[in-house]
Amino acid sequence: MRASYDTLFSKVKGVLNQDPFTGHLFVFINGRRTSIKCLFWDGTGFVLLCKRLDRGLFYKINPMFKGDVILTAAEFALFFEGADLEKRFVESPGEIKKTFPARYKLQESEVTATL
Question: How far apart are CA 99 and CA 114, in angstroms?
Answer without folding.
Answer: 25
